[in-house]
Automatic annotation (TrEMBL):
InterPro entries: GH, GH13_cat_dom, GlgX_Isoamylase_N_E_set, Glyco_hydro_13_N, Glyco_hydro_b, Glycogen_debranch_GlgX, Ig-like_fold, Ig_E-set. Pfam families: Alpha-amylase (PF00128), CBM_48 (PF02922). It comes from Streptomyces ferrugineus. This is Glycogen debranching protein GlgX. Residues 206-617 form the Glycosyl hydrolase family 13 catalytic domain.
Length: 751
């Protein structure tokens, strides 16, 4: 079956045979069939539309539920009327059956029977309709009334509430899976060209599908906040002008909103509360939610690929939206709680390495299969180019401890599909021994929070010396120069979705999370921020100018550093969250990008500088090295690939590294770049001297003389609001130049 027309033809044939109206592919006129369930097959898992015995079209359903006693398939019509069918076939702990006449667009769920025994981890409750873990699309939203909980949520004695079974039907209150015809036509991806950007050439842009597009004036209103909106030429144009090579999308797996947020009239905005690992989040679809969201997502990927932009998904396989023992029963908890989640020795309780109430038991083969099947699906069927794994250390745990030889990491390393895509670890979790920055194996890159901390500390004047900063600027060899890893193992960032925006980092020293409704107790207190003399927004133009300069300093430092830079959407525009450093529940103007900032000269200048720095990085391979610096001379004149200088113009000594300093000179030689280009020729580039000065007063800096240079040309000067284009001001080597207070100068060697 390779086209929608063929699907409709099969649907018509089946309907005629049964004497009923034809179903519409991905439509809403489907009528649940009144036919027996045929045996079907245990593979593949999920609901897969296909042609069955005797050429009869239908859907094969297969669900792993190892400890269950029985499984009911539940089909729903337009009015929500439910038809149940018992899956009687059991093969290798997989319950399965083929239902003739079930077409794409059919909504469904499961009721799983078993023993209610929370004391041993058994939480089966057939009164609760469960989402298929392999559902390719989800229709509806989770509202989380009491009926959705497997236990009596409002039991007076809360310490034992999870042991009292709730027998009310949850079906009217939960979304349903949707049968999707995912056997795409052969030519669907024929015009798609994956950019395949090398790691060293990558610039990542962390973006929220809804927040990026919600207020964009160039996107039609009906497309704002959706996958189609991100695919719109107006959205793509911004990404291309900026020069980023990849978007890293905050979670787009189907997720649920937490009960404590819904009770306060808030919603989960970030999406780190997954419940469907195969389904694009339905609320981000403009075209419909009975399967149309799948095609819309694919179209978005193709549009970004056509612009040379890769798509990386932020994925949350460490926990689910079902939380702990007092959380709702939505899917895995009711299918086989003991089989899917890590439990404590007291099996009523969950092992929680995530801070979200539960942790998936990735050591279990079927859980590992769920995750890897999901990953491969998003690569092969949905076209994505890589993944950023939230709390990846939780996935790398064996029985208890983080283990870099764990089953999860081993499976990824040998998988012929997954080992070829971009893999980014958030290398920590909240459990004991969970901080693992620098420890993931060579296949992986990592979010480097030590880079974030060092750069923030330097520019706020908090570093007693510059030792750590030197490592971070040059690729963090102290963390990654082992096992064949390269500088691009470090994903460098100053800000991320979690924490202050870049503008807030220089405008606030304290979090202001009152809008979250938690008494400002949530969010980190370790912001490493400096407000430049006033807390929050101010009319003082001196403070405002200093803040804009600090933004230029931070962005310039990030984009000149060796490694893979990651920007957060809106930081290049001066986006503010009004001091909220934990805006996970703010689906409003606090989180959405304010595109009107581009009309303000100061913020437009910031965008222009960011774009120029990215273009400079793309043009000069010395700024995106594929190998670590050696620091050794490779020629008779003594010039080295990397050298560090004090303001006196002398190379830094061991004593200088340990002395308090606000000024650092970094020399990058374009003559000694290791490796060869695609044609086998040596890689040769310009050489640069970057001078970073975080002091509150100007400093005299002596430019290094031969063999480093004869003359220098200023390429970037962050003390200037408007950047001049090259050729810039030239200086003779050996001359003392004045570096303005709190500024970065980038000078190109011109002789």
């Amino acid at each position: 079956m390779s086209s929608a027309a063929e699907q409709e033809a099969v649907a018509g044939a089946v309907a005629a045979e049964e004497g009923r109206p034809a179903a519409v592919v991905n439509g809403a006129r489907h009528k649940a069939p009144g036919v027996p369930v045929w045996p079907g097959t245990p593979v593949p898992l999920g609901a897969r539309f296909r042609v069955g015995p005797d050429g009869v079209a239908g859907t094969n359903f297969a669900l792993w539920a190892g400890g269950a006693e029985a499984v009911d398939l539940c089909l729903f019509d337009e009015e929500g009327k439910e038809t149940r069918a018992r899956l009687t076939e059991l093969t290798h702990e997989i319950w399965h059956g083929f239902v003739p006449g079930v077409m794409p667009g059919q909504r469904y769920g499961y009721r799983v029977h078993g023993r209610w025994d929370p004391w041993t981890g058994g939480r089966w409750n057939p009164a609760k309709l469960l989402l298929d873990p392999y559902a390719r699309a989800v229709d509806g939203d989770f509202s989380l009334p009491p009926e959705v909980y497997g236990h009596v949520r409002d039991w007076p004695q809360q310490h034992v509430a999870d042991t009292v079974r709730d027998d009310r039907d949850s079906a009217p209150y939960v979304p349903k899976g949707v049968v999707v015809h995912d056997d795409s036509p052969d030519d669907e991806w024929r015009d798609d060209r994956r950019p395949k950007t090398p790691w060293a050439d990558s610039v990542i842009y962390e973006v929220h599908v809804r927040g990026f597009t919600k207020l964009h004036p160039g996107i039609p209103r009906e497309l704002r906040g959706t996958y189609a909106g991100l695919a719109h030429p107006a959205a793509v144009e911004h990404l291309v002008k900026l020069g980023v090579t990849a978007v890293e999308l905050l979670p787009v797996h189907q997720f649920a909103h937490e009960d404590h947020l819904l009770r306060k009239g808030l919603r989960n905005y970030w999406g780190y509360n997954s419940v469907g690992y195969f389904a694009p989040h339905a609320a981000y679809a403009a075209s419909g939610t009975t399967g149309q969201q799948v095609g819309e997502f694919k179209h978005m990927v193709r549009a970004l690929h056509a612009a040379g932009i890769e798509v990386i998904l932020d994925v949350v396989y460490n926990h689910t939206a079902e939380a702990g023992e007092l959380g709702p029963t939505l899917s895995l908890k009711g299918i086989d709680n003991r089989g899917y989640y890590r439990l404590q020795s007291d099996a009523r309780r969950y092992a929680d390495y995530t801070g979200c109430g539960n942790t998936l038991h990735v050591v279990q083969p079927h859980v590992l299969r769920l995750i890897t099947d999901s990953l491969r699906y998003w690569v092969t069927e949905m076209g994505v180019d890589g993944f950023r794994f939230d709390l990846a250390a939780a996935l790398a745990r064996s029985m208890h401890d983080v283990d870099m030889l764990s089953p999860f990491l081993a499976v990824i390393a040998q998988d012929p599909v997954l080992r070829r895509v971009k893999l980014i670890a958030e290398p920590w979790d909240v459990g004991s021994g969970g901080y693992q920055v620098g420890s993931f194996p060579p296949l992986w890159t990592e979010w480097n929070d030590r880079y974030r901390n060092a750069v923030r500390d330097f520019w706020r004047g908090a570093l007693p010396d510059v030792r750590d900063l030197g490592y971070r600027l040059s690729g963090s060899s102290d963390l990654y120069a082992w096992g064949g890893r390269r500088p691009y193992a470090s994903v460098n960032f100053v800000t991320a979705h979690d924490g202050f925006t870049l503008r807030d980092l220089v405008s606030y020293e304290r979090k202001h999370n009152e809008a979250n409704g938690e008494g400002n107790r949530d969010g980190s207190d370790d912001n490493r921020a400096w407000n430049c003399g006033a807390e929050g927004e101010t009319d003082d133009e001196r403070v405002r100018a200093l803040r804009r300069r600090q933004l230029r300093n931070l962005l310039t430092t990030l984009l000149l550093s060796t490694g893979v830079p990651m920007l957060v959407a809106g930081d290049e525009l001066g986006r503010t969250q009004r001091g909220n450093n934990n805006a996970y529940c703010q689906d409003n103007e606090i989180s959405w990008l304010d595109w009107g900032l581009l009309e303000e000269p100061g913020w437009r200048a910031l965008f222009d500088l960011t774009s120029r720095l990215i273009e400079l990085r793309h043009r000069h391979p010395v700024l995106r090295r594929r190998a670590f610096f050696s620091g050794r001379a490779h020629s008779a004149d003594g010039l080295r690939d990397l050298a560090w200088f004090t303001a006196r113009g002398s190379e830094m000594t061991e004593r200088d590294w340990y002395a308090p300093a606000a000024t650092l000179g970094m020399y990058l030689s374009g003559r000694d770049i290791p490796g060869r280009d695609e044609r086998g020729a040596p890689i040769v580039d310009d050489s640069f001297l970057a001078v970073l000065h975080a002091g509150e007063r100007p400093v005299s800096f002596v430019l290094p003389g031969p063999p480093w240079a004869q003359r220098y040309e200023v390429v970037v000067d962050t003390s200037r609001e408007e950047q001049q284009e090259a050729p810039g001001v030239e200086h003779r080597a050996g001359a003392a130049i004045t570096v303005p207070a709190r500024a970065v100068l980038l000078l190109r060697v011109v002789g």
